[in-house]
Amino acid sequence: MTAGGAQTLAMAGDDAVVPFEVEALDVRGRAIQMGAALDSILTGHDYPDPVSKLLGEATVLAVLLGTSLKFDGKFILQTETDGPVDMLVVDYHTDGGLRAYARFDTARVAAAEELGTAVPAALLGTGVLAMTVDQGSHTSRYQGIVPLEGGSLVDVAHTYFRQSEQIPTRVRLAVAEFHDRKEGSMSRAWRAGGVMVQFLPDTPGRSQTVDLPGGDAPEGFPGEDGPGEDDAWVEAQSLVGTIEDHELTDPAVSSERLLYRLFHERGVRVFSSIPVTDRCSCSREKVAGLLASFTAEEIAESIEDGKIAVTCEFCGKSYAFDPDQFSGSSESSL
Hints:
- The structure is a single chain.
- By secondary structure, the chain is of the alpha+beta class.
- It folds into two domains: 16-202 and 230-278, 3-Layer(bab) Sandwich (Hsp33 domain); 284-332, CBS domain Like (Alpha-Beta Complex), CATH 3.90.1280.
- It has eleven helices and 15 strands.
- The chain has helices spanning 36-45, 49-66, 106-115, 120-124, 153-165, 231-240, 245-249, 255-263, 284-292, 296-302, 327-332, and strands at 16-22, 27-34, 74-81, 87-93, 97-103, 126-134, 142-149, 169-182, 185-199, 269-270, 274-275, 277-278, 303-304, 307-311, 318-321.
- A hairpin with a 2-residue loop joins β13 and β14.
- It is globular, with a radius of gyration of 23 Å.
- It starts with 15 loop residues before the first strand and ends with a helix.
């Protein structure tokens, strides 16, 4: 299916990843606009706006990365930092299920808002971002870890692909809250969008990049006079650089329409979309299984008002258990 061609293009709509390729530039990628699924996640947590925006960015990034998996499993994006928002966790399952939450210091976030410094890089601080691929209990997990050093999630994604995957990559993310007045009342809804473009030529040498050394460049380092980036990749990056935040979040600008705006002169081909839904994977059985692995001492420490109460960090659902049902397994584990 080719955007702008004679065929009628079926639009993917919100909460659906659109894979695409621009053969003339040797680039492939994915684009998404998120609506109801993201709004359900963010409004369910009722975070401060700067935290919601940051978690929205993390969610879009995780979906763009996770939808590249070719097997049944999970992609987990997680940050651990010293910033006001010290943890972000996004779980994407290859069946389209998605869940996310943030952990933050309320006072530090409020202080940042008051000072006008509640931007993503400042909220994250320094630490690490881990990306984990989990194919199930019978396989080993793959994990890539990237340092977070006062940059944005987009900066970290670029660093990861340059250093770990060695694939020239550009990512754009945007999150916005839309307000609408209907019948005298104001409604709010979160939206987000993202595009990831990667340079994947048939000739491997064309995708090589030059890493800049730390400190002063050594004698003989290619530098500005050395081999530059491939012209096709330079053009693709320039086009992606023209994307405005409002284009990524505007419900009137579908992913397909945005891709046509960017690449219509070169010809862009889009493929079947991949739906995404807000769906937590927690269950009473899973929580009970986790509690069954606790020692007697851990079970005793978990009891409050005669019961064990567990609340899912992702969806907020609470589960209550009678401590006696775990006494046997707990005692045997001592």
